[in-house]
Amino acid sequence: MYCKCIIFSKTDRKYIEQPIKPAPPPIVTSRQVTSTSIQSTSESKSDKTSSSSTQNSISSKKKYASNSLQAPGSPSRSRSATKELILPPDDSLMCKPDFTKPLHDLAIRDGEQLILTCHVKGDPEPQITWSKNGKSISSSDIMDLKYKNGIATLTINEVFPEDEGVFTCTATNSICAVETKCKLTIKRK
C-alpha cells in the first residue's frame, strides 16, 4: 500500500510515494474453559448449571494460582520465602552521638576566614544543627554549614565584629542529643 503526500515548496508541488508500514498483527489471547462431564444420574437442570459454574470458577482459581503462569525467576509470594532478619554485630549496636573532636575557643582577626570543624559519630547517624548565642543558624550567602562523613563544618569567608559569640554544634539521634561549644573572639585591626 502506498500513500501520496504533497510537499509544498515556493515554486512547485511534488508527489512522493512512500510505502505505509502494515499494522502489527493483533494480540490474540485465549482462555481454556473446562466443562464437567455429563453425569448419568438424574439431576435437575438448575443443579447441573450451578455445578458447572462452580467447577469453572474453581478451575479458573486453580489456574490463576498455579506456578505455570508465573514468569521464570519471579519471586514466590508464600510465607516460606520470607527471609530471617540478620542481627548486626555487637560493635555496630546503636549508640548516642559523641564528638570525637569537639570545638575549641578561637580568636581571629577581623576580615579573616572562619572555619569551625568538629567530628561526630553515632548510630543511627546524628542530625547536626548549629546555633550562635542560643539562636539557630542555617546556611546562607555569608555562612556555609556542611556535614559529611561524620565531619561538621561551619565556614564564614570574612568575619566581622558582629560574628563574635558562642557557637554551638548539636548532634541529635534517636537516643539523645549532645553538643559542643566554642567562643569566637574577633580581634580588631
From TrEMBL:
Residue intervals of the Ig-like domain: 97-185
Name of the featured protein: Myosin light chain kinase, smooth muscle-like
Record field: compositional bias (Low complexity): 28-59
Polar residues compositional bias, start-end: 65-79
Species in which this protein is naturally found: Drosophila rhopaloa
Superkingdom to which the source organism belongs: Eukaryota
Residues passing through the membrane, by range: none
Start and end residues of each stretch annotated as Disordered: 18-81
PROSITE patterns linked to this entry: IG_LIKE
Pfam families: I-set
Higher taxonomy: Eukaryota, Metazoa, Ecdysozoa, Arthropoda, Hexapoda
